[in-house]
């Protein structure tokens, strides 16, 4: 059962909308202030948050405080903003209210997609139910398979590679807002090569860390390119990029300071956002060559 937080300072909206959501088998939590919403977000695992833009009479955009808190504490929650104003009338103000560290441009795009105007042609309750239904259909988990060194290399120890995956790459992917589950092969698995091939084929996204020109990773990236599908290439040094990949987009990164780790997370999230919004540009260079747009098939 999906869990929904309703945040509105009008009692009748909480009552009426809550009744319809429960009828459609949603588990509903309610808050009428920013502080009440924060308490619920802090202790409950939620799927959606329906947030009134104007929560009180002291601010036109009190609901954005809740959006900021959601993005900081439970970034997987999908926010739906409910407002008496058309989106274009408040777009610039919303951007100013969004906290800078949470990538306001990306969040603004998400809010535009999930924005419900009370003055629209459709009754706002029906509009919210339709939006939840659409988000639910698109909520199927996707796979992001990471190929990277297992053991110590010139740049990192085995423990450091594990740390880079666990504390940088995995959270960046899973907090990007596109419902990816991020994983990598485990060295103790039997038939590891067969499992790697399977994951390279079935995963919607692959991230390849080719630092130190690790031959296994380069081999696996070549397989991914041959199969087709999106791949994000990252490396710690420019010299790690082979000649054949120099014209393929890649992300150079550091990871030893908090600033470097945060920058890598931002770069991964931006890359995923581009791939999700430009799927025709995200196919492998091999697939582009075999099936050139506008060329011979």
What's the arrangement of secondary structure elements?
Blueprint (H helix, E strand, L loop, with lengths): L2 E5 L3 H13 L3 E5 L2 H10 L4 E5 L9 H12 L4 E6 L3 H11 L6 H10 L1 E3 L6 H14 L4 E6 L10 H17 L5 E5 L7 H11 L2 E5 L5 H13 L2 E6 L14 E3 L5 H20 L7 H6 L7
How would you characterize this protein structure?
This protein has 297 residues and is of the alpha/beta class. The protein has two domains: 3-137, Rossmann fold (3-Layer(aba) Sandwich), CATH 3.40.50; 142-290, Rossmann fold (3-Layer(aba) Sandwich), CATH 3.40.50. The chain contains eleven helices and ten strands. It has helices spanning 11-23, 34-43, 62-73, 87-97, 104-113, 124-137, 158-174, 192-202, 215-227, 258-277, 285-290; strands at residues 3-7, 27-31, 48-52, 78-83, 115-117, 142-147, 180-184, 205-209, 230-235, 250-252. The protein has a five-stranded parallel β-sheet, sandwiched between helices. Strands 7-6-8-9-10 form a five-stranded parallel β-sheet, sandwiched between helices. Helix 7 links the parallel strand 6 (142-147) and strand 7 (180-184). Helix 8 (192-202) crosses helix 9 (215-227). The chain is elongated. The model is unreliable at 292-297 (pLDDT under 50).
Calculate Rg over CA atoms. 22 Å
| Separation, N- and C-terminal Cα atoms | 46 Å
CATH class of the largest domain: Alpha Beta
Count, helices: 11
CATH superfamily annotation of the largest domain:
Response regulator
| Proportion in β-strands | 15-25%
Helical/strand content category: alpha/beta
Helix content, binned percent:
40-55%
CATH architecture of the largest domain: 3-Layer(aba) Sandwich
Average pLDDT, rounded to a whole number, is 88
How are the strands of the largest sheet arranged?
2-1-3-4-5
Number of strands: 10
What is the CATH topology descriptor of the largest domain? Answer: Rossmann fold
Q: How many structural domains are formed by the residues?
A: 2
In sequence order, what are the helices and strands, one letter per element? Answer: EHEHEHEHHEHEHEHEHEEHH
Major β-sheet profile: 5 strands, parallel
Q: Looking at the structure, what is the overall shape?
A: elongated
Given as residue ranges, the uncertain stretches (5+ residues, pLDDT < 50) are 292-297
């Amino acid at each position: 059962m999906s869990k929904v937080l309703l945040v509105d300072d009008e009692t009748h909206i909480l009552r009426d909308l809550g009744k319809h959501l429960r009828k459609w088998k949603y588990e509903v939590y309610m808050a009428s202030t920013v502080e009440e919403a924060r308490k619920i977000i802090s202790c409950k695992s939620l799927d959606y948050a329906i947030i009134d833009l104007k929560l009180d009479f002291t601010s036109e955009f009190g609901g954005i405080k809740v959006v900021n808190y959601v993005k900081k504490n439970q970034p997987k929650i999908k926010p739906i903003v409910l407002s008496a104003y058309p989106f274009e009338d408040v777009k610039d103000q919303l951007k100013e209210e969004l906290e800078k560290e949470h990538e306001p441009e990306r969040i603004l795009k998400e809010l535009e997609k999930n924005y419900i105007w009370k003055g629209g042609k459709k009754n706002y309750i029906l509009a919210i139910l339709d939006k939840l239904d659409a988000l639910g259909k698109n909520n199927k988990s996707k796979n992001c398979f990471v190929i990277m060194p297992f053991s110590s290399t010139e740049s990192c120890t085995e423990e450091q590679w594990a740390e880079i995956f666990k504390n940088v790459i995995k959270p960046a992917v899973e907090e990007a807002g596109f419902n990816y589950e991020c994983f990598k092969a485990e060295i103790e698995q039997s038939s590891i090569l067969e499992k790697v091939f399977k994951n390279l084929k079935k995963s919607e996204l692959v991230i390849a860390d080719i630092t130190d020109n690790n031959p296994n990773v380069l081999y696996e990236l070549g397989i991914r390119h041959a199969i087709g599908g999106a791949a994000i290439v990252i490396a710690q040094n420019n010299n790690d990029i082979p000649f054949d990949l120099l014209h393929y987009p890649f992300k150079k990164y550091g990871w030893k300071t908090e600033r470097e780790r945060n920058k890598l997370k931002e770069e991964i999230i931006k890359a995923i956002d581009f791939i999700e919004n430009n799927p025709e540009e995200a196919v492998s260079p091999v697939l582009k060559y075999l099936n050139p747009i506008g060329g011979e098939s």
